Amino acid sequence: MLLIRRLRKINKRTLKHTTIVGTTVKSASMYPDYGIGPLRFYGSEFRYISKNMADTVFGKGVYNLNSDTVTQPTALMRQAMRDAEVGDDVSLEDPTVTLLEQRIAEYFGKEAAVFVPSGTMGNLIAVLTHCRERGSEFIVGDEAHIYYYEQGGAASLGGCHPRVLPNNDDGTIELTAIQESIREEDDHYPVTKLLCLENTHNRKGGAILSPEYIQEAAALCKKHNIKLHIDGARLANAIAELDIDPIEYTKGVDSISYCLSKGIGAPVGSLVVGTQDFIYHARRLRKALGGGMRQVGVLAAPALVALDTILPLLQLDHVKARKFAQGISEMDGINVNLDSVQTNIVFFDVVSMDSNNFTQACSEKGLKMGSYGSSKTRAVFHHHICVDSIPRILEIISTVLDDNK
Fold this sequence. Notes:
This protein is α/β, with parallel strands linked by helices and 405 residues long. The chain has 15 helices and 17 strands. The radius of gyration is 21 Å and the shape is globular.
């Protein structure tokens, strides 16, 4: 039997005014002062990630802000993997996978879900399921992960044609531009089938799509009889920051890819969510793409633990990101837009150094970050980085800047 106890009376989005195993948590904001990552609740125990978590995970004195995909399974996740009840998921006989799929489908108020190995496969399956006729067109942003980082899979494997429109700084695509890009019936044109949006938006610094924008986009799609897909690699961060009902937030959205291995902290996997008919075809595509796995409950089990133990306090990662951004904003040689830091991602410009040289110098001192071009650097916060680590992280950056004046 799967050894995961359900948290009692836990709000899906936040811990505000929530009672958990007899402990009243009035507000998640009370915990950043501890200098810890998200608290962990299991059974009657009240535990938290220790202040030296970064040392024990990445090595002493090493802080990995390269991505939120670098987290490692917690002890509870490893225990769940060991004890997971499993079966043949291709034959729909793995009870742990089924539980995970049902839970996420219900979370978004959709009919069904399917577990896939990665977000890239999830997005590819969604696009190909909506665009079943080769030569169909999907509208996508020019900075979207689907367009920028997924090898053009929809085109190369599915024969789908991307109609690329500019992303605004807030991650949106102008609705008027979307409407004007929907093809008329004409033998010369491909047929527009789908609009893809990304939430939060990675290359726009974790920008959140507003509920109003999503509903307007959904209404526009419905009016023109096209589908709306959300690449929700970090949708959990948007929901946590807005403190919003996920069902209401994604109302009118036809499909979602929901990543488990970023901020939520599970080791592997994403889910694709939609109608029963959509998921039937998505499941067939998963098999064709090599994503049909057998006793995969060993991967679904830690995801269930992550949903119970990491997800409820995801907003703490945003607190850390803002604290970090405020710190670097006070340093000479760095430009950062504090208003753009909405979730767990911080993009900043290093004026005095090439970004590749800067991140290399930081890495040599124990701080890992990602470089984007010659000047832009990205730092991504997650539950393995505690608030008390931020002064040391800022000290490393300050030292590197001073050494290269």
